[in-house]
Specification:
The chain has 13 helices and twelve strands. The protein is α+β, with helices and mostly antiparallel strands. The strands form three sheets. It has a five-stranded antiparallel β-sheet, sandwiched between helices. A five-stranded mixed β-sheet has the order 7-9-10-12-11, with helices on one face. The protein has a two-stranded antiparallel sheet with strand order 6-8. The longest helix is centred in the middle third of the chain and has 37 residues. The radius of gyration is 45 Å and the shape is extended.
Length: 432
């Protein structure tokens, strides 16, 4: 109930009931109106109620209290439900340590995260390479390399995209590229990329160029020397002239073989990703190659023995398979002991065809076997050149087998001999 006006016409003090009543009115108005305009409407009701109370004679202090209470009710109403018309602010959480650990664990190569100079976390590959104890350790101790230490303490702003090459981390032959990226808050991401295979490929390329140059330079030097001798001194001596010309002819033939095999190797490497698509009857090809080699090697050709079973045809390149047979059987006849058999076996083996060439030569020490298919690699360079070898034969064989999606295996026992096994996929009946 409102109090009646005083006799003097001045408004009397408002009762305490008016304050909660105004607040309640504002709150009910705020809750009754939709969430989009609820706050503004409730605030308007609170202010209007306060003004009306003052005009009707309420005490100014009571009116102020009612306005404050009404606005408080508005705030309570507004906080109860967020406006549907406005999107809620999106908060971005900073990834914590377990999130970073899970992220770097998904990477295959060694990765570390450092905080200052300490390793805060490392993935499994990094712990396997550098040790499980590196987490919590100074990164310069975890990666013991002078170049790495200098890079890891440098200002992150200095060369953020630069890389550092490390040798000797892990094993002596391994080579790594260290990449460092700032993450903020004195944190860095340290990644180690294994470049061992790339370095090995580059070294093989350099060695190949050097070896090819050497192999060509040696016969060229002989040709030049004999030509100069014939021109200046021995031109009148028919016997000496014939001997020198014979040597020169042999050197030119050696150069020709080397150039032919270099071209052949280049062509095989260029086509190794394109599988052959013709059918080759391998047993007939083996017999054809045997006939050619018997004529070429004369008396040694009698030592060539075939053990050919009935085998299915293979999908292959006939010219390349012929070259493979010439290289393998020719090597066995060149390095096998004279008078001992050189066996060529051809047998079916499940869905494969197995070709084996077995000689009874001096054999090859086991430390040389892994490198026999490298270009220009020789166990005995002097003997290889004396029998006319170029150092490319087994490398060509390996590339031919790879192109045919087969498998090559070399086994040898010193004093007993060498066995070369080639497995080639048999052709499907639909193809044949």
């Amino acid at each position: 109930m409102r109090n009646p006006k005083a006799a003097g016409g001045m408004p009397s003090a408002v009762s305490l009931w008016d304050v909660p009543a105004a607040s309640s009115l504002a709150y009910r108005a705020a809750m009754a109106i939709g969430s989009g305009i609820r706050t503004l409407a409730a605030a308007g009701v609170a202010v209007a109620g306060s003004v009306a109370g003052f005009l009707l004679g309420a005490d100014i202090n009571a009116v102020a209290v009612a306005a404050v209470a009404g606005l408080a009710a508005v705030l309570i109403a507004a906080s109860g439900e967020a406006p549907e018309s406005l999107p809620r602010p999106q908060t971005r959480s900073v990834p914590n340590e377990p999130d970073v650990q899970a992220l770097i664990d998904a990477l295959a190569g060694p990765v570390l995260v450092t905080s200052g100079t300490q390793v805060s976390c490392a993935n499994q590959a990094a712990r396997a390479l550098l040790g499980a104890h590196i987490v919590g350790q100074d990164v310069r101790i975890a990666i013991r390399h002078p170049a790495a230490a200098e890079r890891l303490v440098a200002d992150p702003a200095d060369g953020p995209g630069s890389t550092t090459h490390l040798v000797g981390i892990g094993t002596r032959e391994q080579r790594w590229e260290m990449r460092v990226r700032p993450l903020g808050n004195e944190r860095r991401l340290v990644q180690l990329v294994d470049e061992t295979q790339l370095h090995a490929a580059e070294r093989m390329r350099v060695d190949f160029v050097a070896n090819a140059s050497h192999e060509l330079r040696t016969p060229l030097a002989s040709l030049r020397g004999f030509a100069e001798t014939l021109r200046e001194e021995a031109g009148e001596d028919s016997e000496l002239r014939e001997r020198f010309l014979g040597i020169m002819l042999g050197e030119t033939q050696r150069m020709q073989r080397l150039i032919d095999e270099l071209i052949s190797l280049s062509r095989i490497e260029a086509s190794k990703f394109r599988a052959p698509d013709t059918v080759v009857v391998l047993d007939a090809l083996v017999r054809e190659v045997r006939g050619a080699l018997v004529d070429l090697h004369g008396g040694r050709g009698g030592d060539l023995v075939l053990e050919v079973a009935e085998v299915p045809p293979v999908v292959g390149d006939r010219a390349q398979l012929s070259q493979l047979l010439h290289n393998l059987v020719g090597n066995a006849m060149a390095y096998g002991r004279p008078g001992t058999p050189v066996r060529v076996e051809l047998q079916p083996l499940g869905e494969m065809v197995r070709l084996r060439v077995v000689d009874q030569g001096e054999g090859i020490p086991p430390e040389h076997l892994p490198r026999l298919t490298e270009r220009f690699y020789r166990v005995d360079a002097g003997r290889s050149r004396s029998v006319g070898g170029t150092g490319l034969g087994l490398s060509i064989v390996r590339h031919i087998v790879e192109r045919h999606r087969g498998r090559l295996d070399l086994a040898s026992t010193v004093g007993v001999g060498t066995t070369v096994t080639v497995l080639l996929p048999a052709a499907d009946e639909a193809v044949s």
